[in-house]
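SAMPLE LOG
Freezer: B-3
Tube label: C17
Construct: single chain, 149 aa
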Amino acid sequence: MRGGRIRIDRRMIWLALAIVPFLVFVGIMAVRQGSAIIGAVVAIGALVCGLGCLPGLSSRLDLRWDVTGISGCSQWWGPFIGLRRGHIAWDDIVAIGSTRAGYAYVATADGRCVLWTEMHRGHDRLFAALERRRPDLLAPARAPAAPRE
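STRUCTURE (predicted):
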């Protein structure tokens, strides 16, 4: 089995970063108009979100897989998602799922995980590799969806 690598779509990161100066400007204008609390919240929120996007410009968020397993981000929470990386052997994977925040993951019985998002271009190649190596984990996901009422 060949290995692979998927990366965050950098265009989305640049788009998010392009919005930050506008939001800082809106915050400053709100402060000048007398809404200091709202302006400060908007400006500080924009700066925090901008800093949270910066790891997406590096290779820290890349996901890699090979014959031994999958390696990638293993931190569960937002701005710190790229700080810790982990590796999971194919045979150690016991679950595939998604979080409320929209991150997909593979996890082990002892709680280790590797995460990725829809912003990772080519995540379908990862699912193809998962299906080849661990078809038992994807079988329920391939079942037809229940009809909507």
